[in-house]
Each structure stands twice: as structure tokens, then as C-alpha cells.
Amino acid sequence: MSVQIRKITVNVPEHLIKMATQATGKGITDTIVEGLQELEKREKRAALRNLRGKIVLELNLEKTRR
Asked: Given its phi and psi angles, is residue 39 left (phi above 0), alpha (psi -120 to 50 degrees) or beta?
């Protein structure tokens, strides 16, 4: 799968970059990418939570466990 890369320039508070790179143990670019991926995951989890009570699953646990 081909991934397009976009070069950007951003102004970020130095203490945030320092804290984030220490937390990940990675460089700035990898840390920023990981942070953006976490935001994407958070949005997906929120979308799943919004489905709570809207999907009915009928499972037979005894049959499923076999």
C-alpha cells in the first residue's frame, strides 16, 4: 500500500515536544505520527461508543464456546 507523505512546518511548544519524544523514545517525526494515529484511534473509539444500544447481537454462548 502506497502512503503519501506531506511535509509540513508547525510551531509546537518545546516542552510538549520534549515530553512527547521522551514518552515515546522516538524522534520528533515518529512521535508526531504516533500522536496523530492516537487521535485517529480515539475518534474511532468514540464512533463505536456512539453505537452503544443501537446494535443487537444475539449470541448463544454455549454454542460459541464449542
From this structure: alpha
Residue in the block written with cell 521522551: 22
Give the Cα separation of 42 and 59 in Å (integer). Answer: 28
- Residues 31/24, Cβ–Cβ less than 8 Å: yes
Measured distance CA(29)–CA(8) in Å, rounded: 11
Q: Is the dihedral of CA 14, 12, 34, 1 positive or negative?
A: negative
For the segment 26-50, what is each residue's pLDDT rounded down to a tens digit? Answer: 999 999 999 999 999 999 999 999 9
